[in-house]
Fold:
Amino acid sequence: MTPDTYLANPANPADPATPAVPAPVAGARYGASGAAARAVAVLEREGRVALAGPWGAGKTTALEEVLRTLPSGPAPGFGSASGSGRTVLRVTTVEEDRDHVFGALAQMLSHCGTAQLAVLSGRQNEVVDRILHRGADEPLAASEQLPARLAVTALLASGRWILAVDGAQWLDPASADVLGYALRTLAAPGLTALVTERVHGRAQAAARLLGGHPVQVDVDPLDAEGTAALLDAHGLPTRWAGPLQSHCGGHPLLTSVSCTALARLPASQRHRPAMAEQAVDAAGAWLHATLGEPARHTLMLAALTSRPSLPLLLRAGRSDAEEHLAQAQAAGVLSVDPASAVHFTAAALARAAARSGARPLRAAAHLTLARAVGDPVHEVRHRALATDLPDQGLAEDTETAAATAREAGERALAAELFLLAAEITPPARSALRIRRLSYAAQEAACAGSVDIARQAADALTAGRAEPTDQVTALLAVVDAHGQAVSDLEPLLARCRELGAGHPDLLAAVELRAAIAANVAHAAPERALRAAGRAAELAAAGGHRPLQAAALTMRARMERVLGTADAPGTLAEALALGIPAQHSGIRNSAQYLAARHAVFDDRLAEARERLVELLALAEHEGDAEDLVDIWRSLAEVDTRLGACAPALAWADQAVRLSTGAGLSMGPAWYTAALTQSAAGSFAAALRTSSCGARASQEEGDGLYVARNLWVLGAVQLHTGDVADAVASLTAVAEAERHVPLADPGMFRWQPDAVEAFTCAGRLDLARALLERARPAPGRAGADSGPGAALDRARGILLARDGAVEEASGLLHRTAAAFERLGLPLEQARTLLALGRVERARRRQAAARAAWEAARAVFDETGARPWQELTRELLDRAGGSAPATGPVPGAGRLTESESRLADLICQGATNQQAAQHMFISVKTVEGMLSRVYRKLGVRSRTQLAAARAAAAPGRDGRTPPE
Structure:
């Protein structure tokens, strides 16, 4: 659980009046749909494409989507004929087909009618009959490839065909020879070809069939956002994206099977998702479909060890391990890094591989690995896993190994080992068993392992352990849930009952209650009271580390509520001298000091503190510590204009949150924030939408609000004012209940004022601006939040007609941002200044302001803002002629390019609006600009222009 969060709850899922959080758009860019869109673009340009991916990746789905798309209208790049004028010849293979001579050709020719075969000579029709086993003649032999080549090539030369081969890896050699000859002889557009191959890597069979070096489109695995979209399509919580991504590795079939299984669960069981048995079964089918028994046995050994590697497998007696791993790698089951470490692509695959042998075989494998592993901790782990009987000596060894893992910072391994030690402790040694279960729960909390924490807590309750042990384990379950604490009040109530009369236990309970009040219930005053009680109880119990943690939480809430006590309380917590790593770096006073520097725009100091804490977290912290520090560094670097590092920090936070099964709302918020400044507005819209939905499902109002802020801000930047007002109104409604909230912590008000102003809701804008005015004693205009409010005030003044006053204020605000070292905010202000100068009909001054903004955005690498500024400068260059593209405006902005791609793929305006999270009206306006820039008048002309411009599309990669 991360207490470093400060916002109120804008969205109560149970309240029907609450504005709806946008749903992720399933299939917009993920898996088979994304591959199909790319394949269509390649076919329109090249006429030939190979679709590749491992077992179950969705190649057939992508192929079918391509075939549905191609006949839907005119085919740019293929002359004037429409797609409906082409005939599809489809070949679908299975493994047994490799042994049937001309089997694939027979399947293909069976689709041809008498009229189509009439173009062939009599001799060629005899060849066709023999391929199809028709008539009295002997079937065509494999050695008779030449007449087959001539007949099939003559047929395919007679019209406009789409040849679709699904499964090039299983084509019989004779058919592959004939089809390859035809494809080498006949060029597109007469013969268009789409070939799939089951492979992880280069599609060799497809390449041989298509000839030369065809373009290969890989059916990519789902990322966390794609997994969230699939969950949403099944009516499941998108907050499960992290665990499901870990279970399934983004594999489309495994993810789909998991979603189907989870959707059948009753609502009472829909908490944190366990790995679906159906997904493990599907993973087992994958292994059986692609690997022989010897390779599967090698993979069983790899799956049973925590750190599989090629040298370990060789030491374990698998002399063919290198060959087996190569086979598994080619099947997409695992990867082998340069250090020879083995990584399964999905946890479900590892579990399926581990289960591929019966219990006696697995026990023998563990003993083999114990002798081969070479690490005393892992040797003990394998010995413990090999036994089903109590063993006091082995239990002691396992506890010692767990302590060693804990010291090394391997908290998940330590939790597993402590639990194993407890399980093999003899029943007569109940005190030892209870101690080991308590340790397992504590380590599980640090590792975010809810399952182990619950197992330990349940075992302690069943064993009637002392209240101290039961409370410790139950609080570990609370901590392991991360941000998802809205449903844990019964656990806290039970802890209070068990902890009665124990000040230190009650202090720990009240500290969690404070965090829950802040995160889940949007009650900072209640959180402050609980933190105060926790500090008093900890002091009474003489528990200095717990006292420091409680004082740190109290300082957080005092800062939220704007009291003057926060610095003193934080100093008191720091004075206790508790090391940052004692109770989690993210919960420490040292980390809060860094966060306060972030809030105050003391960015150099904040970065220095965070880098120091990062070095500590890398050695002694856990996943949540690393994620929080990376997120803070991303925020700092974004404000400093260090765009590339900011994106890298945010990406690391998302990847670790996904891999460790942490709450995704906070990581997606940070990713959206950095994308909105440094990456892509489209990506920021997708990510903030996913983050808001995931946070709402967890009852985490703090990050619902943060994600909605980014969503609304980006909607504002991209011209979707109505949706921006809706998103930011939801934030404003929530924040009404937080008196005197410090604007440095959550900087949503300036964007909301600007959105309300642009929408003509000036009374709302003025009211919010007045409410957000810094209170006496707080940082004013010469602070980041104050300057941002001045920019919003300048935009409001301009809307009221006071353009000269607005211009002066915006000039001063830009200078203030420059003094504060906030370059992106400075450049944003220059954009606003340019718009005001244009309203004053001072075109040269407007262009000068925009040129200055562009220089800042170029220097910092703020890509979406570079695009936006270039568009403003293009428009300022003059009006477009009646025909032909606008001079100097041929480059589409990122949003325009994305819209053009969607339209070329057949999307309606409504569908494009849903994909891009904007309104239909915005799509219509943007499409008009695209037509003007490219000098076209219709969708057909647009598709032709885009195809003619490929590859590279004006020298840049098309946006995702």
User: Anything to note?
Assistant: The longest strand covers residues 191-198. The chain has 47 helices and seven strands. The CA atoms of residues 300 and 384 lie 17 Å apart.
